[in-house]
């Protein structure tokens, strides 16, 4: 299902990670795919409240948890820069879909990074 939210389609996810060669592009691509899949799920499932949104963001966070090991194996890591870039994109997604009151920490509370 193509994403219909114009804010999302115009957004450059994980911009900071793409701009730094320390983060392998093929793995950043996978992180971007996780965020786009999150957007697709939000559009498909249309969570009615923050609790519903948090269920979706936690599933995406778990995917990032799994991806972290691959960054480590590639000689990279989810350092402070990466953690902030990823977290800010989760928050961007929440706001883009009208969840202005979403707690940025709660969106990714299941993170292991």
Would you kindly provide a written description of the structure presented here, covering whatever features stand out?
The protein is mainly alpha-helical and 113 residues long. The chain has one domain. Helix content is 66%, strand content 0%. The longest helix has 24 residues, at 50-73. The model has no long low-confidence stretch (mean pLDDT 97).
Topology:
Layout: H1 6-10, H2 15-18, H3 25-45, H4 50-73, H5 80-96, H6 104-107
Summarize this entry quickly.
With 113 residues, the protein is mainly α.
Number of helices: 6
Query: What's the N-to-C terminus distance?
Result: 30 Å
* Strand runs, count: 0
Largest sheet: none
Please report which band the strand proportion falls in: under 5%, 5-15%, 15-25%, 25-35%, 35-45% or over 45%: under 5%
Number of domains: 1
Mean pLDDT: 97
| Oligomer category | single chain
Q: Name the poorly predicted regions.
A: none
Can you give the helix content as a percent range? 55-70%
Question: Rounded to an integer, what's the Rg over CA atoms?
Answer: 13 Å
Q: What letter string, H or E per element, gives the SSE order? A: HHHHHH
The backbone outline, from C-alpha atoms, is globular
């Amino acid at each position: 299902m193509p994403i219909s939210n114009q804010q999302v389609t115009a957004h450059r996810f994980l911009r900071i990670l793409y701009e730094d060669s320390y983060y392998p592009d093929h793995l950043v691509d996978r992180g971007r795919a996780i965020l786009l899949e999150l957007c697709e799920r939000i559009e498909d499932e249309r969570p009615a409240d923050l609790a519903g949104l948090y269920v979706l963001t936690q599933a995406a966070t778990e995917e990032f948890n799994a991806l972290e090991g691959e960054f480590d194996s590639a000689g990279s890591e989810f350092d402070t820069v990466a953690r902030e870039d990823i977290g800010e994109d989760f928050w961007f997604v929440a706001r883009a879909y009208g969840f202005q009151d979403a707690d940025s920490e709660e969106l990714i509370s299941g993170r292991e990074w």
